[in-house]
Amino acid sequence: MIRVAIVGVGNIASMLVQSVMMYKSTGSFEGVMTENIGGYRVNDIEFVAALDISRRKVGRDLGEAIFEHPNIVPKFFNVGRLGVVVSPGPVLDGVAPHMRDLFDPIEGRVDLEDVVDLLKSSRADVVINLLPVGSEEASRFYARASLEARAAFINAIPVFIASDPEGLWHRLYREAGIPLLGDDIKGQVGATILHRMLVRLLHMRGIRIEETYQLNVGGNTDFLNMKDEDRLYSKRISKTRAVTSVIPYGDELERSGKVRIGPSDYVPFLGNTKVAYIYIKGRSFGGAPVTIEAKLAVDDKSMASAVLVDAIRIAKLAMDRGHGGVIAGPSAYLFKHPPIQAGDDEIAYRWYMDYIEKGLDIGINNSGQRIK
Question: Phi, psi at residue 179, to the nearest 5°?
Answer without folding.
Answer: -75, 150
